[in-house]
Structures are given as C-alpha cells and as structure tokens.
Amino acid sequence: MVSASGPVILDLIGKEFTAEERELLQHPLVGGVILFTRNFENREQITRLCQSIRESRTEPLLIAVDQEGGRVQRFRQDFTRLPPVSEFGKLYEQNADEALVQAEKHGYTLATELSNVGVDLSFAPVLDLNKELNTVIGDRSFHRDPSIVIELGKALMRGMHKAGMAATGKHFPGHGSVTLDSHLAIPVDEREWQEIKDQDLIPFVNLIDSGIDALMPAHIIFPKIDDQPVGFSEQWLKNILRKQLKFSGVIFSDDLNMEGASTAGDYANRAQAALTAGCDFVLICNNRVGAINILDHLPKHHAVSREKIKKLQAKFRNKR
Hints:
TIM Barrel
C-alpha cells in the first residue's frame, strides 16, 4: 500500500547522491525529486540514479523532470529528440488530423522513455497561449488560438496516459499574456477577469473537463482578481480552481526559487504560503540553502494523501 508522503520536491546536485542528499531524502517533509540536465549522463546512469532514489527509503518518492521537448528537454543522449510543441500548432494549421496524431505520439514517446528509466512525471503539457509577448513561453506553447491549444493538449495528454503517465498542465491560468519572465521578475497581468476567462483560461477549463491529473500555477499577479501571485492565492486555487472549475487533481507549485515567488518572503514562508493557498506539492530547485530552510522550518504535519501519490506514480510503479 502507498503511504502518505511529504509535500516538498527538491533537486540533486549531480549524477550521484551526496551524503547530504541521502540524509535529506529521509526527511518526512520530502515527497519527491526533480531532475535536471546536470543529473543526466545517459540512459544507464539515469536508471541507476532513479533506482537509488527509490531505494533510499521505504516511503514513496516521486521522481519528476521537465521533458517537454525543444529547448526544455533535460534528457537528450539515448532519448528521442522531441520538437517544441509549437511545431504541432503550425502543422495543425495545414493538417489538423495529422497534427493530433503527432502530438499524441509525442506524449506517448515522452512518457514511455521516461518511465522506462524510472521517472514518474514530466511536467507537461504547457497550456499557455503563445501571444508572442513572453519569450520564456514562446515555442513551448502549442499556439495562440485556445481551441488549437485544447485539441493538441488533449492529444498529448492522451499519449502520456496511454504510456501510463499522469499529465500536468501549466502555467494556470496562463503565462502567455505578460512580457516578464517569472524566473527573473514578478509579472503583473492587469486584465479583467472576463478577458482572462475568455482567452487564457479556456485550455485549462477544457483539459480539466478531459481529466488532466495535475496543474501547476503561474507566479503571476492578477490584481483584478487577487493581490497575491496565483500559486499563493486561495482565491485562485481554492475558490476558482477547486470550487468553480471543479478540479480535483494535484496542484504543484512552480519553483519557489523563482523571483516571481519572492513576494511571500523566505523559503519556508513561500512553502507555507503555497500549501495554505491550496498547493499539494511545493518545488524548490537550484537552491540547497532554501530547501534546507523549508525542511527546518515548515511544520511537519504537512502530507500528501496516498491516493494522490498513487495517481502520480507512473504505471511501472503501480505494477510493482
């Protein structure tokens, strides 16, 4: 039986465990690991690393990665070079049926190759609209047209599901209408609710209705809705996402090390704010001091239910 686990997902420094990391993974607040290019050498090595992570303790640990395709593909050697999903948007304009076939294959390939080496999750698909305003999104988006993003997003999700992997839509309720990069700044979107609802939110609403497993909110402030970034906002996560949109899946915070998260204070306060707002898991990446600050000061009663963890584990894990 899968037991409850902690809400913190952290990263590793290199291609093997350090003694400090082995100790950190024993912490009851830790619920998973996110991998980066620095953790990867080849298929054999990453398989060993994932196995070591799983064997490091008896409680379940999720293993995640950003493997979207294009410029956001952490594992390349021995893996299929996946195109940016904007290529499917371009193809859709010429041949919609073929674009849907290719997007589904993309999702299946992505998920199969990751699960074969021991990874549970890729944080995909991106459901932001490409309005050519935001370079951090850019070709990571399928298209600027919400209806095309919906169809291609559902196709990619179908492929992931066929391979036994959960899908995570990002960045709720849409990152494509701001110019600033939330990794480096605190973007503010001044639009009214109706405009957001009629544009950027549409793909998320439709993918929720189609059974998407998880969502990741954006570190963006929409002052007409709330004065807090979405990932720290009970209005966005509890009232809009949970109550109005009836989303019952898992909510992952975006990286708490990003500048867009700095409004909430130090790292422990950021984690607490995200969990209070409604996130199930919080990510802290590329900042070991920040991760330790969270583990030292976040109350240890926070946990993620066994049901939610099981839904996120790749099919290969559920068969064991």
